[in-house]
Amino acid sequence: MTTSPDTRDGSFVAGLKGLKDPLDILFKIITILVTIGIFLLGQQYTKRQKAREEEQKKLDRVTALLPYLSSDKDRSQIFGIAVANELNKRGELPNGLLAVLLKIYEENGPSSDVGGAAATLLNSTISNPKVPEETREEVRKALSQPSGNVIIRRPVGSEALATSLAGKLGTRQVNVSRDVLESAPARSELHYFRPQDKPAADSVARVLKAEGTTVQVKDLSNVVQRKGVQIPARQFELQLAKRAATTPPPGP
Known about the structure:
By secondary structure, the protein is an alpha/beta fold. Helices cover 56% and strands 11% of the residues. The chain has helices spanning 11-17, 22-69, 74-89, 96-108, 113-125, 133-144, 159-170, 198-210, 221-227; strands at residues 148-154, 174-180, 189-192, 216-219, 235-239.
C-alpha cells in the first residue's frame, strides 16, 4: 500500500539538503508530490467504490423485494413487508421502498393483515432520522387519514339508527355520510367496490354486528368495472333494510 512520506524525523528535509543540483531537488519534490497525489486519489477511489457498492446493495434489495410486495397474494406481501421490516431495524431499508409500502397501506387499509403490517413498518420510519423529512411527513399524512369512507343509505324513519351507527363507525376513523334510501333492501347490505377492500369491509361489518346490525357484505367490483367508474380505495355503502326503520338504536 502506498504511504505518504514521513517528515517527523527531518529525513525529508535532510534528504533535500544532500542534493546540490536544483533539478535534483525539484525532481525529488515532484516525486514526493506525485506520491502524495496517488495516495489521496487511492483513498478517494476506495471511498467512491464503497459508496457504489452500498448503492448496488440497496438496488439489489429493492429488486429482490418488489416481486413480493407487488404480489396479489397476501402471504407474499406480508413476507415482503417482514423482510423490509428487518432491513428497517438495521437501518438498511432503501427509502425508495417507502413509496411502495405507502401504496400497499393506502390500497389495503389498516384493518387488513397486509395494510396493518405496512402501517406498523411505516410508523417506525417516522422517527428514523435516516429517512428524509419530506418522506416522513408524507408517511405521517397517510397514516393520519381516515381508514375509509362509509355512505349510509337509510329508509325513511331510521335516522336515529343511522346516526347511532355513524357515531360508532366514526370512532374507527371512518368518514360517514347519511342519505335517504328510496328503495330499501329486505336485509341490510354493506357494499364494497374493489376486491382488495374486502378485509376492510369485513372489519366494518363486524363493528356493525357488534352494534346490533347484521349486514350482508356484497362485492360490487364487477359492476363498477363494467360501468368504468373509478371508486376511491376503501369506500363503502351501507344500505339499511326497511325493517331497520323500526329497530331502536343500540344502547350505550
